[in-house]
Amino acid sequence: MLRVLVCDDEPLVRAGLAVTLAAQPGIEVVGEAADGTQAVDRARQLVPDVVVMDIRMPGLDGIAATRRLVRDFPVDGPRILILTMFHSDDYVARALVAGASGFVLKDAVPAELATAVRVVGTGEAVLSPAVTRRLIDRLARQAPAAREPAELRLVTGREREVLLQLGLGRSNPEIAAVLGISRETVKTHVSRILMKLGLRDRVHAVVFAHRHGLVAGPDGDPAARPGPPS
Protein backbone atom coordinates (compact mmCIF):
# COMPACT_ATOMS: atom_id res chain seq x y z
CA MET A 1 0.00 0.00 0.00
CA LEU A 2 1.47 3.34 -1.06
CA ARG A 3 1.07 6.05 1.58
CA VAL A 4 0.46 9.48 0.02
CA LEU A 5 0.49 13.05 1.34
CA VAL A 6 -1.42 15.59 -0.76
CA CYS A 7 -0.31 19.24 -0.78
CA ASP A 8 -2.22 22.04 -2.52
CA ASP A 9 -3.16 25.52 -1.31
CA GLU A 10 -6.63 25.38 -2.88
CA PRO A 11 -8.99 23.50 -0.52
CA LEU A 12 -11.30 22.17 -3.23
CA VAL A 13 -8.41 20.95 -5.39
CA ARG A 14 -6.71 19.37 -2.40
CA ALA A 15 -9.90 17.60 -1.31
CA GLY A 16 -10.54 16.41 -4.85
CA LEU A 17 -7.03 14.99 -5.16
CA ALA A 18 -7.33 13.22 -1.82
CA VAL A 19 -10.69 11.65 -2.70
CA THR A 20 -9.47 10.64 -6.16
CA LEU A 21 -6.35 8.94 -4.87
CA ALA A 22 -8.05 7.30 -1.88
CA ALA A 23 -10.45 5.58 -4.30
CA GLN A 24 -7.56 3.93 -6.17
CA PRO A 25 -6.47 0.40 -5.22
CA GLY A 26 -3.13 0.19 -3.45
CA ILE A 27 -3.08 3.88 -2.44
CA GLU A 28 -3.77 5.32 1.00
CA VAL A 29 -3.97 9.08 1.57
CA VAL A 30 -2.41 9.58 5.00
CA GLY A 31 -2.60 13.35 5.18
CA GLU A 32 -3.10 16.72 3.53
CA ALA A 33 -1.17 19.99 3.60
CA ALA A 34 -2.21 23.50 2.58
CA ASP A 35 1.23 24.93 1.79
CA GLY A 36 4.90 24.00 1.49
CA THR A 37 5.73 24.56 5.15
CA GLN A 38 2.87 22.33 6.25
CA ALA A 39 3.87 19.73 3.65
CA VAL A 40 7.40 19.53 5.09
CA ASP A 41 6.08 19.27 8.66
CA ARG A 42 3.49 16.60 7.78
CA ALA A 43 6.02 14.62 5.73
CA ARG A 44 8.44 14.61 8.66
CA GLN A 45 5.67 13.31 10.93
CA LEU A 46 4.05 10.80 8.58
CA VAL A 47 7.00 9.78 6.31
CA PRO A 48 4.73 8.97 3.34
CA ASP A 49 5.96 7.10 0.27
CA VAL A 50 4.87 9.90 -2.08
CA VAL A 51 4.14 13.61 -1.66
CA VAL A 52 1.86 15.00 -4.37
CA MET A 53 3.06 18.61 -4.33
CA ASP A 54 1.52 21.67 -5.94
CA ILE A 55 4.34 23.69 -7.43
CA ARG A 56 2.98 27.24 -7.08
CA MET A 57 1.90 28.17 -3.56
CA PRO A 58 2.18 31.31 -1.44
CA GLY A 59 4.91 31.35 1.16
CA LEU A 60 7.01 28.23 0.78
CA ASP A 61 6.37 26.95 -2.75
CA GLY A 62 6.66 23.39 -4.02
CA ILE A 63 10.26 23.83 -5.17
CA ALA A 64 11.52 25.05 -1.80
CA ALA A 65 9.48 22.39 0.02
CA THR A 66 10.95 19.70 -2.23
CA ARG A 67 14.46 20.95 -1.53
CA ARG A 68 13.85 20.75 2.23
CA LEU A 69 12.43 17.23 2.05
CA VAL A 70 15.33 15.98 -0.04
CA ARG A 71 17.71 17.52 2.48
CA ASP A 72 15.86 15.80 5.35
CA PHE A 73 15.57 12.47 3.48
CA PRO A 74 18.57 12.25 1.09
CA VAL A 75 17.87 8.78 -0.35
CA ASP A 76 15.09 6.77 1.30
CA GLY A 77 12.55 9.49 1.98
CA PRO A 78 9.28 10.39 0.27
CA ARG A 79 9.27 10.72 -3.50
CA ILE A 80 7.96 14.06 -4.74
CA LEU A 81 5.41 14.19 -7.56
CA ILE A 82 4.89 17.76 -8.74
CA LEU A 83 1.48 19.10 -9.73
CA THR A 84 1.50 21.71 -12.48
CA MET A 85 -0.82 23.37 -14.97
CA PHE A 86 1.64 23.39 -17.87
CA HIS A 87 3.97 20.60 -18.97
CA SER A 88 6.56 23.08 -20.29
CA ASP A 89 6.63 25.22 -17.15
CA ASP A 90 10.21 26.14 -16.20
CA TYR A 91 9.15 25.63 -12.60
CA VAL A 92 9.04 21.90 -13.34
CA ALA A 93 12.70 21.81 -14.39
CA ARG A 94 13.62 23.72 -11.23
CA ALA A 95 11.65 21.29 -9.10
CA LEU A 96 13.40 18.32 -10.72
CA VAL A 97 16.79 19.85 -10.01
CA ALA A 98 15.62 20.38 -6.41
CA GLY A 99 14.87 16.66 -6.10
CA ALA A 100 11.39 15.91 -7.41
CA SER A 101 10.94 12.61 -9.25
CA GLY A 102 8.39 13.70 -11.83
CA PHE A 103 5.31 15.71 -12.55
CA VAL A 104 1.67 15.32 -13.46
CA LEU A 105 -0.74 17.85 -14.92
CA LYS A 106 -3.56 19.11 -12.75
CA ASP A 107 -6.09 18.20 -15.42
CA ALA A 108 -4.94 14.58 -15.60
CA VAL A 109 -7.66 11.95 -15.36
CA PRO A 110 -7.77 9.88 -12.13
CA ALA A 111 -6.12 6.86 -13.76
CA GLU A 112 -3.19 8.98 -14.98
CA LEU A 113 -2.70 10.54 -11.55
CA ALA A 114 -2.81 7.14 -9.84
CA THR A 115 -0.34 5.68 -12.35
CA ALA A 116 2.05 8.58 -11.79
CA VAL A 117 1.87 8.10 -8.01
CA ARG A 118 2.56 4.37 -8.38
CA VAL A 119 5.48 4.89 -10.75
CA VAL A 120 7.13 7.49 -8.52
CA GLY A 121 6.39 5.39 -5.44
CA THR A 122 8.34 2.46 -6.87
CA GLY A 123 11.42 4.62 -7.44
CA GLU A 124 10.98 5.45 -11.11
CA ALA A 125 10.51 8.86 -12.72
CA VAL A 126 7.51 10.42 -14.46
CA LEU A 127 8.62 12.77 -17.23
CA SER A 128 7.68 13.76 -20.73
CA PRO A 129 10.36 14.11 -23.44
CA ALA A 130 9.68 17.85 -23.59
CA VAL A 131 10.34 18.32 -19.88
CA THR A 132 13.43 16.10 -20.03
CA ARG A 133 14.80 18.30 -22.80
CA ARG A 134 14.01 21.45 -20.80
CA LEU A 135 15.76 20.00 -17.75
CA ILE A 136 18.85 19.11 -19.78
CA ASP A 137 18.93 22.54 -21.41
CA ARG A 138 18.77 24.15 -17.99
CA LEU A 139 21.57 21.97 -16.61
CA ALA A 140 23.74 22.56 -19.67
CA ARG A 141 23.85 26.27 -18.82
CA GLN A 142 25.31 25.59 -15.38
CA ALA A 143 29.02 25.19 -14.69
CA PRO A 144 29.91 21.67 -13.49
CA ALA A 145 31.44 21.04 -10.08
CA ALA A 146 35.19 21.62 -9.94
CA ARG A 147 35.98 18.22 -8.47
CA GLU A 148 34.80 14.77 -9.36
CA PRO A 149 32.96 13.19 -6.40
CA ALA A 150 34.69 10.26 -4.71
CA GLU A 151 31.70 7.94 -5.22
CA LEU A 152 32.10 8.21 -8.99
CA ARG A 153 35.22 6.06 -8.63
CA LEU A 154 32.93 3.15 -7.77
CA VAL A 155 31.37 3.33 -11.23
CA THR A 156 32.83 1.10 -13.95
CA GLY A 157 33.71 2.32 -17.43
CA ARG A 158 30.57 0.81 -18.93
CA GLU A 159 28.41 2.27 -16.15
CA ARG A 160 29.95 5.67 -16.84
CA GLU A 161 28.97 5.30 -20.50
CA VAL A 162 25.40 4.51 -19.44
CA LEU A 163 25.41 7.47 -17.04
CA LEU A 164 26.48 9.74 -19.90
CA GLN A 165 23.58 8.45 -22.01
CA LEU A 166 21.20 9.10 -19.10
CA GLY A 167 22.59 12.63 -18.96
CA LEU A 168 21.69 13.06 -22.60
CA GLY A 169 18.09 12.17 -21.75
CA ARG A 170 18.03 8.84 -23.56
CA SER A 171 15.63 6.04 -22.65
CA ASN A 172 16.76 2.48 -21.90
CA PRO A 173 15.95 1.27 -25.46
CA GLU A 174 17.89 4.21 -26.92
CA ILE A 175 20.86 3.53 -24.64
CA ALA A 176 20.80 -0.14 -25.62
CA ALA A 177 20.90 0.80 -29.32
CA VAL A 178 23.72 3.33 -28.89
CA LEU A 179 25.93 1.03 -26.79
CA GLY A 180 25.03 -2.21 -28.54
CA ILE A 181 23.80 -3.99 -25.43
CA SER A 182 20.46 -5.46 -24.38
CA ARG A 183 17.72 -3.48 -22.65
CA GLU A 184 17.97 -5.77 -19.62
CA THR A 185 21.69 -5.04 -19.38
CA VAL A 186 20.96 -1.31 -19.52
CA LYS A 187 18.37 -1.71 -16.76
CA THR A 188 20.93 -3.54 -14.62
CA HIS A 189 23.56 -0.85 -15.19
CA VAL A 190 21.10 1.91 -14.32
CA SER A 191 20.15 0.16 -11.06
CA ARG A 192 23.81 -0.21 -10.11
CA ILE A 193 24.57 3.40 -10.98
CA LEU A 194 21.74 4.66 -8.77
CA MET A 195 22.85 2.41 -5.91
CA LYS A 196 26.56 3.32 -6.13
CA LEU A 197 25.94 7.05 -6.42
CA GLY A 198 23.11 7.17 -3.88
CA LEU A 199 20.67 8.64 -6.41
CA ARG A 200 16.89 8.48 -6.09
CA ASP A 201 16.04 7.76 -9.74
CA ARG A 202 17.11 8.41 -13.32
CA VAL A 203 16.02 12.06 -13.14
CA HIS A 204 18.71 12.64 -10.56
CA ALA A 205 21.19 10.63 -12.62
CA VAL A 206 20.62 13.26 -15.34
CA VAL A 207 21.25 16.04 -12.81
CA PHE A 208 24.36 14.25 -11.47
CA ALA A 209 25.85 13.72 -14.94
CA HIS A 210 25.57 17.42 -15.77
CA ARG A 211 26.62 18.74 -12.39
CA HIS A 212 29.83 16.73 -12.48
CA GLY A 213 30.82 17.43 -16.05
CA LEU A 214 30.12 14.03 -17.59
CA VAL A 215 28.00 15.83 -20.19
CA ALA A 216 29.51 19.09 -21.37
CA GLY A 217 28.31 21.92 -23.56
CA PRO A 218 24.94 22.82 -25.02
CA ASP A 219 25.12 20.02 -27.57
CA GLY A 220 25.65 17.38 -24.89
CA ASP A 221 29.15 16.44 -26.02
CA PRO A 222 30.82 14.00 -23.63
CA ALA A 223 33.20 15.61 -21.21
CA ALA A 224 36.84 14.80 -21.59
CA ARG A 225 37.26 13.31 -18.15
CA PRO A 226 38.60 9.77 -18.44
CA GLY A 227 36.81 6.99 -16.65
CA PRO A 228 38.10 3.75 -15.18
CA PRO A 229 38.37 0.73 -17.46
CA SER A 230 35.30 -1.46 -17.87
Index terms:
230 residues, alpha/beta, Rossmann fold, 2 domains, two-stranded antiparallel ribbon, disordered C terminus, CheY-like_superfamily, Two-component transcriptional response regulator, LuxR family
Write a structural description.
The radius of gyration is 18 Å and the shape is globular. Mean pLDDT is 86; it is low at 217-221 and 223-230. The protein has helices spanning 11-22, 36-46, 62-72, 90-98, 110-121, 129-140, 157-167, 172-179, 183-197, 202-211, and strands at 2-7, 27-33, 50-54, 79-84, 102-105, 215-216, 221-222. By secondary structure, the protein is an alpha/beta fold. It contains ten helices and seven strands. Helix 3 runs parallel beside helix 4 (90-98). The strands form two sheets. Strands 2-1-3-4-5 form a five-stranded parallel sheet, sandwiched between helices. It has two domains: 2-126, Rossmann fold (3-Layer(aba) Sandwich); 139-222, 3-Layer(aba) Sandwich (Rossmann fold). Strand 1 (2-7), helix 1 and strand 2 (27-33) form a beta-alpha-beta unit.
